[in-house]
Amino acid sequence: MIQMDIIQSVIDRIREKYVPDGRVELFDLKVIHEQERPVLYGETTSRDAYREILSETAGIATRIRLLPDEVVGENLWGVIYNPVEKLQASNSHASEVLSEILLGTPVRLLDVKGGWRRVQTPDGYIGWVSEGLKPMSGTEWRDFNRRQKVIVTAIYGFAYENPDHLSQTVSSLVIGNQLLLTGETDQFYRVAYPDGREGYIRKSDAVLMSDWLQESDLTPDTLVATAMRFMGVPYVWGGTSSTGLDCSGLTRLVSLLYGLIIPRDASQQVLIGIPVDHRSDFSGLHPGDLLFFGQDENKVVHVAIHIGEKRFIHASDYVRLASLDPVDPLYDSFNAGRYLCARRIVGQEERPGIDRILNHPFYQP
């Protein structure tokens, strides 16, 4: 038993060293007593942690997988083909929904189990998806990234079988969906899905992705204006799409619509950009700043977007406005009482934790 305790302390030390955030790296190990000897089981995505645990436990039987491994095969990439795909905590529909992934998003494949695939998204989050993605080899994935695409800019929309909005629908669409461009008419783009389906979407609902990436103009005012487009969207735990949003899903989606990939959760987002409002009197806030709430800065549980005059927009029951000013009719005493700090991402796009789609490795040809 003493030996097993020592092994567990080694596991804990290596996890803390290499995998401090289990949302973006895996280090799931356990030691089991078998036939009167300890055996180390588990899996990790960290090559450094894998090497060190093997070195530190030399002489002990190990059954540790470094993911991805031969179970995944040659298709180490995938692209989401549903408008919104749930990312879940385990390979079960009954498990917690961690996040959502939008149509056209490339993901890294880590594992396969029972018809489910464990994936890593561009923001680093790791979870499981059931169906919903087209597995690709490295060559296929690079070819997909090279091809011209359109991005949906309407909050909601549809793809149709013919260039006619009265024709049969192919699927619903949401803002941020990306589809391959295969042709166009006067009023429609002809598009293809990663799984091979084809359809037409209105030009009024989408733009060429190349133009969108070049023309995105992130300013305090444009960020706020984009956030306001989601007013009334219902709160959904794990939601990152216009079908339903949680608090950090709203900030993440608004950032994505300016070609930026930021971390998934509020407790991760509080680490990006630059700190503002050092005196906590709101005098240093600009529109577009992210506001963080919680028990203390080690326990951030909520995020909002400042829109000016101490007002903010956030996802709470539904996307709505609130205020930190006690004399404002929209005063939110609960969140005012747990306000922690603010961070600015506008103008800080080159700082760590903020990635441009143009430069992100998942999107490179």
UniProtKB/TrEMBL annotation:
**GO terms (BP aspect):** proteolysis
So what EC number does this one have?
3.4.-.-
User: According to the lineage, what is the superkingdom?
Assistant: Bacteria
Is Hydrolase one of the keywords UniProt gives this record?
yes
Q: Is Protease a UniProt keyword of this protein?
A: yes
Q: Name one GO molecular function term.
A: cysteine-type peptidase activity
Report the PANTHER family cross-referenced here. MUREIN DD-ENDOPEPTIDASE MEPH-RELATED (PTHR47053:SF1)
In the record, the note on similarity to other proteins reads: Belongs to the peptidase C40 family.
Protein name as catalogued: Gamma-D-glutamyl-L-lysine endopeptidase
Q: State which gene encodes it.
A: ykfC19
